[in-house]
Amino acid sequence: MKLKIKKGATVQVITGSDKGKKGSVMAVDVKNMKIQVQGVKVQTHYDKKDGLLKKEGFIDYSNVKLVEAATKEKKTSKKATKSKSA
User: Fold this and answer.
1) Where is the KOW domain positioned along the sequence (predicted)?
2) The CATH number of the domain where 54 resides is what?
3) How much is the pTM?
4) Nearest by Cα to 29 from 56, 7, 53
């Protein structure tokens, strides 16, 4: 299934304990329909080497709404750059 929310987009959480929080999408799991949002569902893990680590968890795709789509940089072809400089 194709998802409208892509990596780099800004989303807002609409349900759950983090309701109202905004953040950018860090990762998208299309198979399980889950996304990872910066600053949302922060989980703490203990590691012997590094101590306490904070990491964002995945939340369901249906629990967020798109605020701003990810911007895609337009690629310019070699022909277009040559014609502009001439």
Assistant:
1) 4-31
2) 2.30.30.30
3) 0.72
4) 7
